[in-house]
Inverse folding.
């Protein structure tokens, strides 16, 4: 899964309409969120750092929910935007998820196990489990 990293309001105009998951590394306003949704009709999730997620208004949250877009809390650790505008979740993460499912683990158990193993946010793992194709 590719996560498009957007680090400023100005970058919103440069993203493509094919983005499915966007990480906002700035504090988004309602206008920023509405612009993103309008620009990216295939958007499935907004990934926002913990420190910023608390400042997203109830109306923006409600709008995201009505559009079927998940609001996912977390960070993209170790990502260098100057090298690549995308952060990627490796296929091996999905393979581990599938292996745990085959072992009979529940979604909650998979989430807990992977969060510890990968040092990845629970919200992102939960989103990945829910949207696994």
């Amino acid at each position: 899964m590719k996560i498009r990293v957007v680090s400023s309001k100005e970058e919103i105009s440069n993203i493509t309409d094919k983005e499915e998951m966007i990480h906002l590394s700035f504090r988004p306003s309602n206008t920023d969120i509405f612009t993103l949704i309008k620009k990216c009709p295939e958007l499935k999730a907004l990934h926002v750092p913990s420190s910023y997620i608390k400042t997203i208004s109830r109306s923006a949250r409600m709008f995201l929910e009505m559009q079927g877009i998940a609001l996912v809390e977390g960070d993209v650790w170790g990502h260098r935007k100057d090298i690549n505008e995308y952060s990627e979740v490796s296929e091996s993460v999905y393979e581990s998820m599938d292996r745990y499912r085959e072992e009979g683990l529940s979604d909650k158990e998979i989430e807990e196990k992977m969060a510890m193993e990968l040092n990845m946010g629970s919200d992102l793992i939960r989103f990945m489990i829910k949207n696994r194709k």
